[in-house]
Amino acid sequence: QVHLAESGGGLVQAGASLRLSCVASERTENRYGMAWFRQAPGKAREFVVALAQIGGGTFYADSVKGRFAVSRDSAENSLYLQMNSLKPEDTAVYYCAACTHFLPVRPIECEYWGQGTQVTVSS
User: Fold this and answer.
1) Please, which of 20, 33, 66, 101 could form a disulfide with 8 given CB 3.0 to 4.6 Å?
2) Secondary structure letter of residue 101 according to DSSP
3) Structural contact between residues 70 and 36, judged by C-beta atoms closer than 8 angstroms
4) Backbone phi, then psi, for 62, in 5-degree steps?
5) Do 74 and 51 touch, CB atoms closer than 8 A?
């Protein structure tokens, strides 16, 4: 069972940038599809971006395409989410997930979750 821990959230103004980190307790490359999801108050958990289990392919939600970028540091067992040009509608708790699905885009496809990190974007 892999354990995940996110960090890097905070309160920023619209237009600012943040970099979220997710450290895994074990190697995830070639073992898990990885993904970032987010959940705003009163809303369902929403897909943000996925990193394929093998090959490094990525898939972004339309709402973040061109502004967010996912990356991995295999040596550190870490996943990152660089968020630029943040908007108030990006406000949510952001979760890192490790999934046995090759390219996970739905929460049900993921078995392991971090505790989440809060991102708040003020207008």
Assistant:
1) 20
2) S
3) yes
4) -60, -35
5) no
